[in-house]
Amino acid sequence: MAFAPSDMKLRSSAFDYHTRIPTKYTQEGENVSPPLHWDGVPEGTTRFALLCHDPDAPLVQNGAYGFVHWIVSGIPGDVRSLEEGSTLGVAGLHDGGGSGYTGPMPPEGHGTHHYYFWLFALNADPNLPAGADLATFLNAIEPHLLGMNRLVGTYRRGD
Questions:
Q1: Which of 80, 85, 109, 143 is paired with 125 by a 20 to 30 Å CA distance?
Q2: How far apart are the C-alpha atoms of 128 and 40, rounded to whole Å?
Q3: Residue 43: exposure state from Cβ atoms within 10 A (0-12, 13-18, ≥19)
Q4: What was the pLDDT predicted at 58?
Q5: For residue 85, pLDDT beyond 50
Q6: Which DSSP category does 62 fall into?
Q7: Residue 158 class from Cβ within 10 Å (0-12 exposed, 13-18 middle, 19+ buried)?
Q8: What's CA 57's distance to the chain center, in Å?
Q9: Minimum mean pLDDT range among 26-30, 54-58, 145-149
């Protein structure tokens, strides 16, 4: 299956689609991951994976653009939500050099950025190691992809 949105829906009780992510979930606040929940899961899903990416970040590295804020794999297929600050699953490498979640922090004066929280429904565990980078993550999940969708939040530094 190609990477294309499905009927699965991803939402947050902290912000709506295309609205401002509360400061609490940014590096200007507590820098904890927002609560997320989903439904419309494809039949045969045994695992989920998650990616948060800012395509507006003025960064190009290793042939990729933007800034990766969060990579998580190995989320059990019966889970339908992640609570605020969740550490469930196997954390990959974010572009700040660490693992786990790191929140929005666009450069000063760079305007509003868009943060894409992508949820992937998988038919098998990709068995990614902790600290996997974006390319490794995408290559590992693609053969197991059943469905995906996104929640987009915005953030402008200093607002």
A1: 85
A2: 25
A3: exposed
A4: 82
A5: yes
A6: T
A7: exposed
A8: 15
A9: 54-58
Token pair belonging to 73: 């794999």
Give the pLDDT of residue 47: 98
Contact in structure between 8 and 149 (CB atoms under 8 Å):
yes
For the record, the structure tokens of 25 come out as 């979930």
Is residue 6 classed as helix, strand or coil in its secondary structure? coil
Q: What angle do CA 59, 12, 158 make, to 5 degrees?
A: 50
Q: Kindly list the structural domains of the chain, giving each domain's residue range(s) and its CATH number in brackets, ordered by start.
A: 21-124+137-147 (3.90.280.10)
CA distance 127 to 37: 23
- For the segment 18-28, what is each residue's pLDDT rounded down to a tens digit? 999 999 999 99
Query: Residue 1 — pLDDT band, cuts 50, 70, 90?
Result: very low
Q: Which two tokens stand for residue 7?
A: 């009927």
User: pLDDT tens across 106-136, in order?
Assistant: 988 899 999 999 999 999 999 999 999 999 9
pTM value is: 0.94
Cβ neighbours for 110, distance < 8 A, ≥ 6 positions apart:
56, 58, 157
Cα distance between residue 134 and residue 37, in whole Å: 23
Q: How many C-beta neighbours within 10 Å does residue 81 have? A: 14
Q: Cα 27 to the chain's mean position, in Å? A: 16
Whether 88 contacts 72, CB under 8 Å: yes
